[in-house]
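note to self — DONT lose this again. spent like an hour looking for the file last time. sequence + predicted structure for the chain T wanted, 308 res
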Amino acid sequence: MLRGTQRAKVFWFFFSKKNILLFCLAFAGCTKPPPPAPKLVAHPHYELGAPYEADGHWYYPEENFALDETGLAEVLPDQAGLTADGEIYDGSALTAAMQTIQLPSVAMVTNLQNGRLILVRVNGRGPADPGRVIGLSARAAQLLLIPPNGVARVRVQVDTVLSHRVVDQVGGGPQLEIKTAPRGVVTAQNLPPPGAGGGAGVTRVIGAPVTETHGPAVPDRMPEVIHAVAPAPAELWLRAGSFARFDYANMLAAKLAGLGGDVLRSREGRQTVFAVRAGPFRTVAEADAALRRALGAGVVDARITVEE
């Protein structure tokens, strides 16, 4: 038999354990699980935006429904949330980010190294790197055969008609009736998906002159159609601006003397234009280093291009 003091110790032992258990149960009952994260709601809209700074460089958005430029493309990292124009980011869709054009837009992106061409929906801002002309979603990069952490020499052409259509669909953008929107004819050919065998498919023409802007709605997800054009492997150059006067161009070229800066003379209609160019550069790393030097010298509109 337990003596009195022993019974008391046993009683208080079980009593204290019971209180602790009751306290834990009561505390658990009062603590509610955290609420679920709010569901993202897309609200696509026309977006241009004010000038902004990214990675120490200023960008000035402007409408350009006829943009046609070359440069380097990078692959966008995985991300979550809404794009700059209010769409839900989806790395499995054919989307892209550009620094200054109106959003959303539709652009043709050609990998100049292998001739693959796709249509992407431009709905985000970026890349922050001034040495990159466009950022591609993981899926868009995959179809163009660009490795996840790689860059590629590309040509980016805004599709004037489809871009006006998609802006009209989301609303809030410029209301501009375009009767004709001529574009250069590009012979294209369907290709099998990456990793698939088989023939190249049927050749067709894309980019032919378009005579009306009204037509089928642009889908939210661009179709995964790959075209083929002739590869155009070319060199990396630095473009630093163009002027109507040689002396202005020559002063700018002097700032790039250590990079091989030179002045090119060309004709645009009846006007003579003097453009400043430096290079060529053998590698992307060399072009990036040259761009950093140019920006550091105050040549704020310098950019990397791909030219023959």
